[in-house]
Amino acid sequence: MANKPKQQAGEAGAGTQGAATAATSKDKVSKKGAVRRALRALGKGATPSAMRPWISQQFGIEMSADHISTAKGEILRGKGKKRTAGKGNEAKAASAVGKAAAPSSSGPGPAAGTVSLDDVRLVKDLMGRVGAEPLRSLIDLLAR
After folding, report:
1. What would the pLDDT profile of 104-128 be if each residue is shown by its tens digit?
2. Do 55 and 32 form a contact (C-beta atoms < 8 A)?
3. How far apart are CA 106 and CA 22, in angstroms?
4. Which residues contact residue 68 at a Cβ distance below 8 angstroms, ignoring those fewer than 6 apart?
């Protein structure tokens, strides 16, 4: 029974498929999403001037040819996925930083096993004060 309303809605909208798509898609599709869908429908070789009326008709979104061209370029270069994938990657990166910093009792900082720029500056300063050989001896002593 759950499938019947979906089938009926599809059947009822069969004559006005474009209008139904435009009505339901206006609120849900971003401009870049509309360009992405236009590329799927019209092909990668579609020109912005050919995509512009299709986007307007399907989604009711007005875009300049330059805007469409920019979005198309980003999508085809792979940058178009960064918004949705980027959010997941940022969350993963944030959780990885949180996990890496959690075992450290010295507070926020780089993960164990990494060397930060501040660490390098401190070592350089120490080497300038005590010299390379005494610092090397100290490192060897601490490494045991």
Report:
1. 455 566 677 788 888 888 888 888 8
2. no
3. 56
4. 35, 38, 48, 51, 52, 55
If you ran DSSP here, which 8-state letter would residue 79 be given? G
Q: Which residue has the tokens 């601490």?
A: 142
CB 61 within 8 A of CB 31: yes
- CA 103 to chain CA centroid, Å, is 28
pLDDT for the residue 104:
47
Compute how many other C-beta atoms are within 10 angstroms of the C-beta atom of residue 25.
16
Q: Which two tokens stand for residue 112?
A: 């164990």
Structure tokens at 6: 């979906």
- pTM value is 0.41
> Which residues, 6 or more positions from 38, have their beta carbon under 8 angstroms from its beta carbon?
46, 51, 54, 55, 58, 68
Say how far apart CA 1 and CA 58 lie, in whole Å: 30
